[in-house]
Amino acid sequence: MRVIGMMSGTSYDAVDAAAAELTLTGDTLALRPLGMVSAGYPPALRAALAAALPPAATTLHEVCRLDTGIGRAFADVAVRADRELCGGRADLVVSHGQTVYHWVERGRVHGTLQLGAPAWIAEATGRTVVSDLRTRDVAAGGQGAPLVSLVDVLWLRGRPGRPVALNLGGIANVTVATGPAGPVAFDTGPGNALVDAAVRLVTGGARDVDEDGVLAARGRVDPALLRRLLAEPYYAAPAPKTTGKELFHGEYLRAALAAHGAPVAAEDLVATVTRLTAETVAGAVRGLGGTEVVSSGGGVRNPTLTAMLRAALGRIPLRVSDELGLPAAAKEAYAFAVLGFLTILGLPGTVPGCTGARHARVLGSVTPGAHGLRLPQPAPAPPVRLDVLPPRR
């Protein structure tokens, strides 16, 4: 099947769509990348989304407007992906949507909300859409994240040692494919979330990303502030665990600075929270006994963060997922393409040891395309490995 996976992460900077040819033969799932297209949200929609996210208050009126606006933005990118990457012959679209709230209390996830009504995608493309992938795992007692852990396990379990997959999005997460207790995955804490929050704070909202890590590179880490930030209880909580911008947001950073008391220069603040990401990721990798790290996500484009992470990892090698065939910028979108493909085949899309769910479950809801709902024959058994094939020449 030609499957389009769609994703907008916690940084909500763009809608990404990656297309793949997916084939299940016996116990092996083969993925051949077909490419990626991406588009930023319209400025008014992005501003409305930013204004509605925690810790801000919002209204049901605004939630409805966002659900429609995000759905239509995803639909526009899906049409492009079908035309440009699949020659107008996509079989399926899988939409993660936009996470706006992840309800966590005392380490337990009670609910999760992703906006972007899939009907807009189905109507615009005529393709069947799989969406709302996280909720079923939560209902089964899981964290609803990191859902990409299944793909990481299938992809990396054959490599020597104990490889760790790392996604450096707004929130960073890791998956170790093998270990004494089997596969394990969890959110390590902020990836780019506090870096972005720091940049917005020091620029008065004029910028919201540290482009190429320039500000952090100019700054010096404030050791006392870093110690205060590292004292966050989340880091010591046991896995499985998940977090989001419900915890790591601009007001969280303001409160830490107020408690710190001493003034911190703009570049030093960005450098300190960048080091925080590197230290918390490296600590998680060491705790898992990782022997190599395969990284992806927007954070790999930040050379200052990458350098700090390499230093924090020491002798543990840090690689980019492109080296293993999956483009770092599109890896999550490809992962959701795989999860939706498994859903259509009636196969589970989770690893209970990674999300904490009681059982592995088939994920998501299905919205029929223009020609009704035509499902393939259910597959007899789930895959145990993922082979990434080279792009066609």
UniProtKB/TrEMBL annotation:
Location of region: Disordered: 371-393
Keyword tags: ATP-binding, Carbohydrate metabolism, Kinase, Nucleotide-binding, Transferase
Assigned protein family: Belongs to the anhydro-N-acetylmuramic acid kinase family.
Pathway involvement of the protein, from the record: Amino-sugar metabolism; 1,6-anhydro-N-acetylmuramate degradation; Cell wall biogenesis; peptidoglycan recycling
The protein's name: Anhydro-N-acetylmuramic acid kinase
Enzyme Commission number(s) from the entry: 2.7.1.170
Comp. bias regions, Low complexity: 384-393
Role according to the record: Catalyzes the specific phosphorylation of 1,6-anhydro-N-acetylmuramic acid (anhMurNAc) with the simultaneous cleavage of the 1,6-anhydro ring, generating MurNAc-6-P. Is required for the utilization of anhMurNAc either imported from the medium or derived from its own cell wall murein, and thus plays a role in cell wall recycling.
Matching NCBIfam families: PRK09585.2-6
Lineage, opening ranks: Bacteria, Bacillati, Actinomycetota, Actinomycetes, Kitasatosporales
UniProt: ATP binding residues: G9, T10, S11, Y12, D13, A14, V15, D16
Protein's organism: Streptomyces kanasensis
GO molecular function: ATP binding; kinase activity; phosphotransferase activity, alcohol group as acceptor
InterPro entries: Anhydro_N_Ac-Mur_kinase, ATPase_NBD
Catalysed reaction, written as an equation: 1,6-anhydro-N-acetyl-beta-muramate + ATP + H2O = N-acetyl-D-muramate 6-phosphate + ADP + H(+)
Lineage top rank: taxon: Bacteria
An individual GO BP term: peptidoglycan turnover
Gene3D superfamilies hit by this protein: 3.30.420.40
Database matches in Pfam families: AnmK (PF03702)
